[in-house]
Amino acid sequence: MSAAEPFSKRGGVVTRVRGMLLRPALTWPEVEGEPATARGLMLGYVAPLAAIGPVCSALGLILFGPSIAGIHLKAQPLETIGGALIDYLLSLATAYLLALVISALGPLFGGRTDRIQALKLVAYSGTAVWLAGVFALYPTLGFPMAILGALYSLYALFLGLPRLMRAPGDRALTYFAVVILCTGALALFLRLVTGFMP
């Protein structure tokens, strides 16, 4: 069984990325009916895309250095690479745990409990924010482009949530708002936990 199983018959990762960026409303119905496994989604889609930001950020900091008030500082390569690795692992953990949360919340908003559909939702809606990580190669562009990517990912999530989790229209907006709050809380919790690690 291929790690890229969910989309291997439809043109691969590039086709799915293009669909999520250019026509998410038309891509979600395709996604809903696809067979998938958690392993396939995580290894075949989330893992490679989530690596873009940390890798580009580390390269950008090492090549250009961080800048504070117009003063360029020299980044420490080992520390920078270590930070990028932690960011990457946090991205993977956040994606998987958020899918569990979305699945568990489904019945509260008239939807369903389905971990695979929830993981599809998290994996594919995250496309824009993960791809925006390429702009971290140049640190001053990284943050604004990450914001734009995050906003587009939220839009994709908003479109996909009612379809994949079968939430009725009148409750989908509240479900979406709760998912956003849970995303922020989960990311903050994981960041605090790793912040206390030696």
Give descriptors for this structure:
198 residues; mainly alpha; 8 helices; 74% helix; YIP1 family protein
Describe the structure.
The chain is built from 8 helices and 2 strands; from the N terminus they run αααββααααα. The chain has a two-stranded antiparallel sheet with strand order 1-2. It has one domain. Strand 1 (67-68) and strand 2 (71-72) form a beta hairpin. By secondary structure, it is mainly alpha-helical. InterPro entries: Yip1_dom. It is found in: Membrane.
**Percent of residues in β-strands:** under 5%
**C-alpha Rg, in Å?**
17 Å
Q: Helical region count? A: 8
- Strand count: 2
- Identify low-pLDDT runs: none
Mean pLDDT across residues: 89
Main sheet: which strands, in order across? 1-2
**Strand-pairing-aware structural class:** mainly alpha
Oligomer: single chain
- Determine the fraction of residues in helical runs and give it as a percent range: over 70%
Secondary-structure topology with pairs:
Elements lengths: L11 H11 L1 H10 L4 H27 L2 E2 L2 E2 L4 H29 L9 H11 L1 H5 L7 H26 L4 H27 L3
Compose a concise summary of this entry.
This protein has 198 residues and is mainly α. Helix content is 74%, strand content 2%. The protein has one domain (5-195).
